[in-house]
Amino acid sequence: MELLLQTLINGILAAGIYALVASGLALAVGVVGIVNFAHGEFTMIGAFIAYLLFVGTGLDPFLSLGLAALVLFGVGAITYLGLIRPVLAAPELNQMLLTFGLSVALQNIALLLFGADTRVVSTSYQGATLSLGGLSFGVPPLLAFGLSVVILGALYGFLDRTRLGLAVRAVAQNRLAPGLLGIETQRVYLLAFGLSAALAGVAGVMLSVMLYASPTVGFAYTLKAFAIIVMAGLGNLRGVVPAAIILALAEALVSTYLPGGGGWVEAVFFLVIFVALTWRSWRAA
Amino acid sequence: MILVGLLLLVALVLPGLPLGEWRAFLLDTAQFAFLISALALAWDLLARTGQLSLAHGAFFGLGAYAAALAAPALGTLPALLVGGVVAGASSLFLGLATLRLHGMYFAIATLAFSEVMRTLVLKAPFTGGAIGLPVQPAFGGAFPLGGYYLAVGVLALAAGISLLLSRSRLHYAMAATRQGEAVARVLGVPVIRVKLLAFMISAFLAGLAGGVYAMKTLFLSPYDAFGLGRAVEALVIPIFGGLYTTTGPLLGGLIIVSLETWLRLRIGEGYLVVYGVILVLTILFLPRGLVSLFHRKGAGHA
């Protein structure tokens, strides 16, 4: 019973980061209509920013969150203006290939700059845990989870309560009508793509503490984010949080209860993608 | 067409030419280029139906492992066939489940498929896992050039099928499927069957190329055979060379693999950066590939 509870807690704590990365991807897909294969690479950049700041200035990663978010917003905006906007009207195949190319390029540039080693930000509280009724909570996952909840709350507040947020949601629902109503679609795209990258970057900062920074760390998160938004329904922002929790719980259960489970965790997101996609396609057919 | 024949002819006589001290290196690079070009041709066949596959690295790897495991018992040629058939069969399963999906959904499903294949090969008891799998050379090493000519053969087969398909009724069915599935269906094209057929032929060729690759490198590891690098090469080459053509992937393959080999010697890890950059630049500035440059000059129309 205790093992089960502990597993469930681990799963839920992991869901925070998943939801951050996936909300970013859902913004890119839902609002801009771009399937961004380079999304995980934005996460990777965030992780390296945290690592470099920590090594260079000793800045605590959780304090560099804001800076990383700003930098990644800029990276996302530049990516949108330089690469995405020119292909907005191109066939979907071209758009996917473009972001896939960006992903490969960023991964390998990082490989050239930093090598393939994994780098951990070792803070003083890294191994610290809180115990509560026989269950233990790691401090970094707890912090990351709390921050994720706050950031996601702010994101949903922005989308629900502000005029700009409403404009973003309007564009997500319909490409043409908001333009006729005086919403500047291009600026909404820019904002959404920047936000998308910033969310990925923030998640990356947290990863640098909980996992590590490496050139390929982001790629798995692209796939997991895809699994989540596919489960939620592509472009459906509301469904992201429950879908993230389901994926994280499934992974936690597999790693605890399946013999030799560690390696199979990597297969869980595939199963999720697969089941969600085929179920959808057969239901639609 | 003429260019394709010329290229294959050069490939055939290459070992006989006086290449000097670089001979071994040149032949080795050429063999690699032929196999990757064959993989690119195979990828292009599926792309003609409008599906973006990120699983071709996995088919290549499956073919490599299957051929390597079958070779001691069956001999070289039947083992290669086994490799192709295993890849083709796996594409049938993947395709039956996913080919109803469009665009991004299919791409994501194939990407996930290849990640899981790597996990399976890492975990399976008979593949050598993370340590790797030693492979016998082609024909037990009886002919030094055996592997080279096998690569030429696979390339010729891929180019032949690619040419044949662009002259067949299936070509129109594939093009119609790509350009508008609903319309194609109304016109009586069995869309799912066309896609499935293209997928299987494509995966079979990728598996064949993988088998010859295994007998060339003599050693397989999941990270090499199932790495994302193969899937990237398979799609960047046709796009750079020119989609939906036979000349495009051939030409692109030779150019890009030469570039890759040179870069690998110079910077080692991270050489794939060139694929990313080429992919992005091609999509932005030359979306119809190298081949479109020739057409514009030759025929006077874009």
In DSSP terms, counting alpha (H) and pi (I) runs of 4 or more, how many helices of chain B? Answer: 14
Sequence stretches where pLDDT stays below 50 over 5 or more residues of chain A: none
Low-confidence spans of chain B: pLDDT under 50, at least 5 residues?
A: 298-302
Which class of secondary structure composition applies to the elements of chain A? mainly alpha
- Main β-sheet, spatial strand arrangement of chain A: 1-2
Rounded to the nearest angstrom, the distance between the terminal CA atoms of chain A is 42 Å
**What is the oligomeric state here?**
heterodimer
Helix content of chain B: over 70%
Order of helices and strands of chain B: HHHHHEHHHHEHHHHH
Give the averaged pLDDT of chain B, no decimals.
88
Greatest interface and its participating residue counts:
A-B, 47 and 43 residues
Largest sheet of chain B, in brief, is:
2 strands, antiparallel
How would you describe this protein?
The complex is a heterodimer of chains A (285) and B (302). Chain A has one domain. In chain A, 49% of the residues are buried. With 285 residues, chain A is an all-alpha fold. Chain A is globular and about 60 Å long. Chain A is 75% helix and 3% strand. Chain A has a two-stranded antiparallel sheet with strand order 1-2. In chain A, helix 1 runs parallel beside helix 5. A two-stranded antiparallel sheet of chain B has the order 1-2. Chain B is mainly alpha-helical and 302 residues long. Chain B has a domain of 201 residues. In chain B, helix 2 packs across helix 11, helix 3 packs antiparallel against helix 4 and helix 3 runs parallel beside helix 5. Helix content of chain B is 75%, strand content 1%. At the A-B interface, helix 4, helix 9 and helix 11 of A face helix 5, helix 11 and helix 13 of B.
